[in-house]
Amino acid sequence: MSYFHSVRLDAERCKGCTNCIKLCPTEAIRVRDGKAVITEERCIDCGECIRVCPNNAKRAYCDGLHMLKNFRYRIALPAPSLYGQFRHDVTPRQIQSAFRLLGFDDVFEVGQAADYITCAMRIFLRENPDTTWISSSCPAIVRLIQVKFPELLPQLMPLDTPMELAAQLAKRRAYDQWGPNTQIGAFFITPCPAKTTAVHQPEGNPSHVDGTISISEAYGALLKVLPVADEASPTHMSQHGSGWALPGGEITALGKTRSLAANGVRDVTLLFEELELGHLEGIDFIEAQACPGGCLGGPLTVTNAFVSRARLERLLYKLPVLATEDCAHITPLISFTQPLRPRPILPLDSDVSAAIRLLEQLEELLHGLPRLDCGACGAPSCRALAEDIVRGLATETDCVIKLREKVKRLALEMVDLATKLPPAMGREG
After folding, report:
1. What tens digit of pLDDT does each residue of 51-93 get?
2. CB distance 263 to 289 below 8 Å
3. At CA 121, angle to CA 115 and CA 122, rounded to 5?
4. Could you list the residue range(s) of the whole structural domain that residue 178 is in?
5. In a domain, 156, yes or no
6. What is the pLDDT of residue 419?
7. Quick check: 92 and 231 in contact, CB under 8 A?
8. Which of 26, 14, 21 is nearest to 58 (CA)?
9. Dist. CA 276–CA 95, nearest whole Å
């Protein structure tokens, strides 16, 4: 199976520094021949490698503003995290007006869709008790579960994202106004690469979004037109819907629930390990976001996550709390029509008996490795190196310590051999 990935490698910039392999949560990266290599089936497009690469060798693909020309009617779908990027004296109405100056015909708040989904989540939790449900709003987390925690897939809440619902509702409104044959494009203003992947290779339902524009690109373009933007654009923002951008925002919107929130893919991984072990009894809902600090900490944002959080919280204080208890007409739009499947990782061998033998060989190799997880071999850990060895992708001497031990043994053997002569040549002294 081929995969679409928004996180991509610029090989010319890569120096093989190994920073990315150590911090990739799914061990999807190796360094080979001095360059990083990404294993497609393991990559979840979380963007952690983008954050840590000192050479800017990892980048995120987005469709960009130039895609607007392909559509007659263009809709902007700004993520709530966008509003945290601007100074407090820039209002949401000005930002929405600025979108129209950039060539958009309409702006639909993703936070408004989040209000509807919050309502659907409340109903779902009431009707499905006695299970710890996991939010499906972060596509990187959905893929993390598919790759590392397939046993938890049945616990993913079977509801689509605010991005997708916003696109559906915005297009319905546009078709009602302009007719069903209008060429309409809906563009999500994204804080992270995982959303782009969710658009181009969705899990579950087909995507209704036609493209993505990074917050960093949109921010620069909006700044240029903000001086002439007005306050005429209507806004449909609320505390709870727009608060989804904050860590714990979904839980705040849900109200009184027995819930946990984790942000940052490493902390989420630790929490899921506890969930798999059955240590989270009495928890009804887990909000999990791959980016540290929630969507405000996405790798495609421009403002420090702590600064943007303070700005957004100040804005939320001024917004109304919308009551959205009537969402029966919305739920069919956001319910998954097919179950999510685990992402197949290449097995050690297609034959079960051979795979067991290779696993035993792997454990034996691991026992002989230093277990320093230094990354000098190009793998993120000694266990990953042992796996690569049994797959035939690496050798034991890729480990610099094992190589040094072998060189030392050879050197000692050479010294020993140098002191010996054949019997026919005689011996001195």
Report:
1. 999 999 999 999 999 999 999 999 999 999 999 999 988 999 9
2. yes
3. 95
4. 65-334
5. yes
6. 80
7. no
8. 14
9. 43
- State which of 306, 334, 362 marks the end of a domain: 334
Instruction: Write down the pLDDT at residue 324.
Output: 62
The label of the residue with tokens 């957004």 reads 312
DSSP state of 155: G
Region of residue 370 (left: phi > 0; alpha: psi -120 to 50; beta: else): alpha
**Alpha-carbon dihedral angle through residues 267, 268, 272, 278, given to the nearest 10 degrees:** 60
Whose structure tokens read 């197949």?
344
* Count of structural domains within the chain: 3
Residues 204-248: tens digit of each pLDDT: 778 999 999 999 999 999 999 999 988 877 678 888 999 999 999
Q: Are strands 35-38 and 29-32 parallel, antiparallel or unpaired?
A: antiparallel
386 in a structural domain: yes
Task: Identify the residue whose tokens are 């969402």.
Answer: 327
**Within-domain flag for 32:** yes
Position 220, amino acid: G
Instruction: Give the residues of the chain that fall short of pLDDT 50.
Output: 429
- Domain membership flag for residue 264: yes
Q: What is the pLDDT of residue 226?
A: 94
- Looking at the structure, tell me whether residues 188 and 286 fall in a common domain: yes
The pTM for the full model equals 0.88
225 CB-near residues (< 8 Å, 6+ apart): 98, 101, 102
